[in-house]
Amino acid sequence: MQALAYRQAHPLDAFAIEPVEVTEPRLRDADLLVEVHAVGINPGEAAVRRTRSAETGGRLVLGWEFAGVVRAVGPAAAGFAVGDRVLGTGDMARDGAWAERVAVDHRVVALLPDELPFADAASLPIAGLTAWEALFREHDDLAAGIDRVLVVGGAGGVGTLATRLLKSRTSALVVATASRPESREWCTAMGADVVVDHTGDVPAQLRAAGIDHVDLVLSTAGTAGNLGWIAEVLRPFGHLSAVDLTGPLDPMPLAAKSLSLHTEMVFSRITAGLDGQGRILAALVQDVVAGRLRPIATTVLDGRTAAAMRRAHELVESARTVGKTVIRF
Questions:
Q1: Where are the beta strands (DSSP E) in 204-323?
Q2: CATH topology assigned to domain 2-124+268-328
Q3: For a 10 Å CB count at each end of the chain, is N or C smaller?
Q4: CATH number of 128-263
Q5: What CA–CA distance (Å, rounded) separates 177 from 191?
Q6: 257 Cα distance to chain centroid
Q7: What is the pTM of this model?
Q8: Is the pLDDT at 181 greater than 70, yes or no?
């Protein structure tokens, strides 16, 4: 079958993802074989492309959020049948969904109703799971009893769905950060009560809006560099939930207020047990159908081609988009 793959880690200006022929995925007992109709493109994949090479003689097929149709069902994959429309994520240790078909554990997949197009569905899995798990921990609901939440990077995929989840599932006042007119407008349209510019003096902007503190900060970008003002705006014993910690972090600004730091990485469940993510995806789909959430596919490209993938990565790496970029296969 055909897939989009590369061999060596590379920057955008040396883009080397291209169509290749790969072997058909082999199903494990708990797997589904899904014919891929659309994929979401996220910053994590661009980061992997820049930093991770294949083993000698090998190639990498990325793609960790998709929507499509089930074509085969493993003997331990309960709740699914051939022909079902689904959305899901995947496993960083296996070939991903930038291919005609992908093998994926059924526990990170959810059924997709006919009224939700594949392109819209593909915008939900990674951002939706990240936002949900960063806000609503399995045994520690961070958003419970929280009155004020600040979402750093409110126009991105995670920030957008976090805002919508907070507005639909809690009574919290939601502040989003955005630096451009179009991203500010997007945050407001998604339900943010207040929008501030993260390139300016955030504490001063909050005070001007009558907000002297927040209870929880969900930071999707620039966390290490923003830690000083994040600690300033949080109340004592408040919470920082961060999804972008990839380098050194000095926790001292958090200590003076006894702040809690929570981290989130979607693929943590690969080692902790996959049960739960399929249920979260199903809840996200139900919220979309009910009108409580909306899909966030703002740019839809067409074709399993190197040109479409390169354009998607250009958009992701520009950090100047709102919502999500999706490719229809």
A1: 214-219, 234-242, 260-263, 297-302
A2: Quinone Oxidoreductase; Chain A, domain 1 (3.90.180)
A3: N
A4: 3.40.50.720
A5: 13
A6: 29
A7: 0.94
A8: yes
